[in-house]
Amino acid sequence: MLGGEAVNVSMSAMCMSIVNVILVPILLGFLCNKFFSKAVQKSLDGLPLLSVVALSLIIGGIVGKNSELFMSSGLLLVVAVGIHNMSGYLLGYLVAKSVGMEEAKRRTMSIEVGLQSGALATSLATQYFSPMTVIPGVVASVYHAISGALLSNYWSNKSLDKNSDNKLYKEVV
After folding, report:
1. Could you tell me the pTM of the whole model?
2. How many CB atoms sit inside 10 A of residue 26's CB?
3. Are the C-beta atoms of 98 and 74 separated by less than 8 Å?
4. Which phi and psi (to 5°) does residue 138 adopt?
5. DSSP annotation of 5
């Protein structure tokens, strides 16, 4: 119970939604790569653009449908999502560094931790909760797309530290 209200949600239905949103696309990607590897290789350059367009259309539709709620959520939500996102980047990087991972893996860990699935949150909120619960996921999706692109661009222009100490990581792995 949160805020004095109980929320009844079917756990099995929510688990199936997670499977459909996360696992089915991954499985389909593996199968396409296995059985249609030549076509997949030819299409790799266009896939980032396709994913950005698809995500933009999905988010645009959700924002359009809930624009009044979106506008009333205000700057506080954007700041909270930003703090959460930046904390994820920082903690992912620092934990990777503390276990001795090399710089490329630190950066990957940072981005993976920082880019939590706003799209999954939006999908689940749309199906199982009130329209107001969709807004944080939408804000997170937009924020993650922008901040992830900026961080990736920043790091792509920085050389990797080839002499980084990764002895502890090699011992663990």
Report:
1. 0.61
2. 9
3. no
4. -65, -45
5. B
Domains, the chain, ordered by start: 1-44 (no CATH), 46-172 (1.20.1530.20)
pLDDT tens for 42-77 read 888 887 788 778 877 877 777 777 777 777 777 788
pLDDT band at 93 (very low <50, low <70, confident <90, very high): very high
CB distance 128 to 98 below 8 Å: no
Task: Give the chain's length.
Answer: 173
Residue 105 burial (CB < 10 Å; 0-12/13-18/19+)? middle
CB of 122 closer than 8 Å to CB of 62? yes
Task: Please classify residue 77 by burial: count the beta carbons closer than 10 Å to its beta carbon, then call 0-12 exposed, 13-18 middle and 19+ buried.
Answer: middle
